[in-house]
Amino acid sequence: MGAVGRPRAFDTERALDAAVEVFWRHGFEGASLAALATAMGVNKPSIYAAFGDKAQLFHAALRRYVERNMGYVDAALARPTARECAEAFLVGNARAVTRPDYPPGCLSVQAAVVPGGSNEFSMLAENRADIHERFAQRFRRAVTEGDLPPEADPDELAGLLITLSSGFAIRAADGTPRGSLEAIARRAVAVFPTGRATGTEPVTPKENTHD
Questions:
Q1: pLDDT, tens digit, for every residue of 67-123?
Q2: Phi, psi (5° rounding) for residue 125?
Q3: How far, rounded to the nearest angstrom, does the alpha carbon of residue 148 sit from its chain's CA centroid?
Q4: Where are the alpha helices (DSSP H) in 70-117?
Q5: CB under 8 Å to 116, separation ≥6 — which residues?
Q6: DSSP class of residue 42?
Q7: Disulfide engineering: 148 pairs with which of 35, 125, 152, 199, CB 3.0-4.6 Å?
Q8: Minimal CA–CA distance to 197: which of 139, 147, 138, 141?
Q9: Burial class (CB in 10 A: 0-12, 13-18, 19+), 138
Q10: Where is the HTH tetR-type domain (predicted)?
Q11: 123 contacts 170 by C-beta, under 8 angstroms
Q12: CB atoms within 10 A of CB 29
């Protein structure tokens, strides 16, 4: 019978949750390995054995953060209209960055306040770019279905959402209360373009011109 590997002496998921909070509070550069080890309840060699170096631990922490704290993105994308999609995203984000049981703000913004190595910073940018593209695709479909007007720019609308959500994270870290951020979210959605009523025949954008 082959040798059985010794199980880890700590709960990997719980340790990773602790690392998320340290990176969230202090950023990538400000989170020392000593602080991470203390919060995670392990020694430095155990961190290296389980996760690799600090950059690899940060990557794992960001993935964990997205899985546990950004479910509102998928929920927003599933809304039936573009305006409801935008509102659900912005209100969901306003609530996520003001949760009383977590540090204020957003890990993907707070961790980059003092940028670390280029790989860490690019991973944060890639995460934002991925969310941007998912909303842009959703808004392209809305244009095709007639839910957004033909002249609407899906990329610009997606960029508006990402820019506002980043601003919400900064304002939350500054102490802006949840109610104020939700009010700003709804104010922004009030000027969001709309097409014809849902349920009408879809149109092909920018092909309805007449002489």
A1: 888 889 999 999 999 999 999 999 999 999 999 988 898 887 776 654 444 566 677
A2: -65, -40
A3: 24
A4: 71-77, 82-96, 107-110
A5: 27, 28, 29, 55, 58
A6: S
A7: 152
A8: 147
A9: buried
A10: 9-69
A11: no
A12: 15
Q: Tell me the C-alpha distance between 141 and 129, whole Å.
A: 18
Measured distance CA(102)–CA(95) in Å, rounded: 11
Residue whose entry in the numeric block shows the structure tokens 């949750």: 17
Structure tokens, 16: 């990773």
Q: What pTM was computed for the model? A: 0.78
Q: DSSP assignment of 131-150, as one string?
A: HHHHHHHHHHHHHHHTSS-T
107 in Cβ contact with 20 (< 8 Å): yes
Query: Can you read off the two tokens belonging to residue 205?
Result: 């954008």
